[in-house]
Fold this protein.
Amino acid sequence: MSRKDLKYRGTQCINCETSLDISEKYCHHCGQLNSTKKLTISDFIEEFFANFYAYDSRLRNSILSIFTKPGVLAREFNAGKRHTYANPFRLFLSVSLILFITFNFTEGDNSPNNIDPLVVDNELTENQKQDLKTLDSLSNKAISKNPNAEGLINSLNRKEINHSRDSIYTKQFIDENISSGFKPLIYTALSFRNFNRKYPEKTTEEALKELGHEVTFYTKTLFNKSKLFKSNDIESEVFDYFYQKLPFFIFLSLPILTLMFWLVFYSKKINYTEHLVFAYTFFTFIFLCMMIFNFIELISEELTYFVSGVSFAFIFPIYFYKSLRNFYQQSRWITVLKFLILNPLFFLFLGICTLIMMFIGIILF
């Protein structure tokens, strides 16, 4: 017998104790099924699959709408069609979680986090080898000029570069000989890491003084973070770290990025939350595509570069325009104009978000 049968209906909701009529199948206050029948295994299984199918159908509708009707899901969800589609916030979180898993899955054994540190220590990137060869041609006088480095001169005696070579440079040496882009920061971090591996018994303050650095909050933080690197290829480790955390960072950044939609498409008819629904829906599409890229990478890395390149150059901009057109429903030329305005604004807000996320990422590293 079904739990919905008339014989099992009561006159009071078991969940919220609201008075009910015997003809009511569900509580008009909380929506719970009006049934006094004890739960059986068959009822439990039936209820589980009913709920699963209900969510599965909303998920299917959401995915189809995202890929075939850009911007429509957000517009209809805001209009009140809440049972037709999955909640955009929940959908974004679910897709982000799956994307995070695929990042780790496709990395395999090539990730710095999955390589034996003892093996990696014997390897340097080609750029680092070239940089070190250039540095080896420089005089060690730059090191001896630093009075704080007297105890390290013997240990810093440079020989012909080989793969097992650890590199340690003082601040003065880096300041005088390395000034290109982020290289001073990279070699400072390398020096901190290698110094700690050679002299693990020394405190952070002692290490900084011997390497010619002032003992500040910044240098102490950088030294402690540098100790966490698993290889000398720290650029790849940093990139992989932020790449894996990309869904999390974008999730935190979207409320800020949504401000540009609110500014450009300002209207009393659309509030900030509705703009946010649009932003989450759009980036759900981006994340779904990135998941596809990760699976393509299992087949061919070159094909992944080609597909992702075409997507970022053509497909994503076209999709973004269509999303704006369908969601805000403004004329074609106004949408094109605002699309062009959004591009520089996007990079401005993205820069702000990047700085904030880098700060958070460094803290969490």
About this structure: The chain has three domains: 1-38, 88-109+241-364, 126-229. The chain is about 65% helix and 0% strand. Confidence is low (pLDDT under 50) at residues 109-125, 135-144, 149-165. Residues 126-229 form one domain.
